[in-house]
Amino acid sequence: MIGMEIPSYWKSTLEDIEAAMQSVTRGRVSIIGHSAGNRPIYMVEYGEASSHVQMANYSSALGAKQLEVYKKNPQPCILLYAATHGAEFEGTVSMLNLISLFETGADLRGEKNELLANWPQRAHLMLIPCMNPDGRARVGVKSVVGMTIGEFRRLAQGVWKDGTICDWPDCKKYHPIKEYVSFMGGYFNDDGVNLMHDNFFVPMAPETQHLMRICSENAPDFVLSFHGHAGCGGGSLIPAVFEPGCDTEYLVELEEQLIPAFEQAGSWFVPNVRQSCQGDMRSFTQTDACHFCCGAISTLYESDQGVVNRESDYALLENRYDIILNSHMAIYKAVENCTQKWFVTEALP
């Protein structure tokens, strides 16, 4: 890993999250549960939560052909969560900057954005900065920018008992993985469960139970999970591939806004939604589970991480921290804009 100075606004650790939660005065902080390793999972809410009383769960409401007996959100309800994989914490960084924007009117760089700062007036926002605190604690480092792909794979996926790196996707062959490795990477909670591939109908992980409960009880309209793609450059959305086809069109519209927004941020966005929903080896993941739990449009964002895969990537590292954060802020703005269009009802003043 090359030596790069980590900016002061790059807050990514569990200690940073704890400090941010202590500073919240305008939002509502809660611990939604604890990880397999008994670490707290924090959530902070902004905006007015729905007072709608659920008469049925999502599946039963669909069966009754009356979705309103399950959910009736007067404003868009949006769930944002990061670091399902402990070495993919760029979303944590951006979320702590977003919280600063909500609390002070400026992100941790001191940059103001009036539109985003006022987002809580137009939506019920639920932010979980780290879904997998066990994996995040195991990774330890504050940044992976400038790290080589080999260094990153060791931290993210771990090391087999024979000393070789648990590469992707073979790290998913054994689940839970705990008994097969000499070092367990940040993908996994302390029980060796990859939360992205839990058995969602009979959950192995307490973290999964907490996330599904939040989805079920709050009935979000839109769920966005932040991941990282172990590369240096652009980013893309990966939707819940088993969602109804009509939801694809919503996410394609979101992609169309992100292409110019990423270019302005100094990066590039790769449209991926239609392609992700094709093929025979589609994987039912946490993203799909969130959709089927509450009916939300559910997707994840694969972020640029500044990880060096080839010699030419070193030239892309300049201003990489700002570019990564700016790209995430562009996502928040596009989500705000699109969800206001998709979910605001005519009955609202």
Write structural notes for this entry:
Helix content is 35%, strand content 14%. With 349 residues, it is of the alpha/beta class. The strands form 2 sheets. A 7-stranded mixed sheet has the order 1-2-4-3-7-9-8, with helices on both faces. Strands 5-6 form a two-stranded antiparallel sheet. Strand 1 (28-34) and strand 2 (40-46) form a beta hairpin.
Summarize the helices and strands and which ones pair or pack.
Elements: H1 14-23, E1 28-34, E2 40-46, H2 58-64, E3 77-82, H3 90-104, H4 114-117, E4 124-128, H5 133-139, H6 149-157, E5 158-160, E6 181-184, H7 206-218, E7 222-228, E8 236-239, H8 245-264, H9 273-276, H10 286-294, E9 297-303, H11 320-343
Parallel strand pairs: 3-4, 3-7, 7-9
Antiparallel strand pairs: 1-2, 2-4, 5-6, 8-9
Helix pairs in contact: 1-3, 3-11, 7-10, 8-11
Considering the chains and any ligands shown, give keywords for the structure.
single chain, 349 residues, alpha/beta, seven-stranded mixed sheet, two-stranded antiparallel sheet, 11 helices, 14% strand
How large, in whole angstroms, is the Cα Rg?
A: 19 Å
- Helix-strand sequence: HEEHEHHEHHEEHEEHHHEH
User: What does the oligomeric state look like here?
Assistant: single chain
- For the largest beta sheet, what order do the strands appear in spatially? 1-2-4-3-7-9-8
Principal-axes shape call = globular
Mean pLDDT, all residues: 94
Helix percentage range = 25-40%
pLDDT below 50 for ≥5 consecutive residues: which ranges? none
Largest sheet: 7 strands, mixed
SS element count, helices: 11
Q: Approximately how much beta-strand content do the residues carry?
A: 5-15%
Taking the alpha carbons of the first and last residues, their distance comes to 54 Å
Structural class: alpha/beta
Number of strands: 9
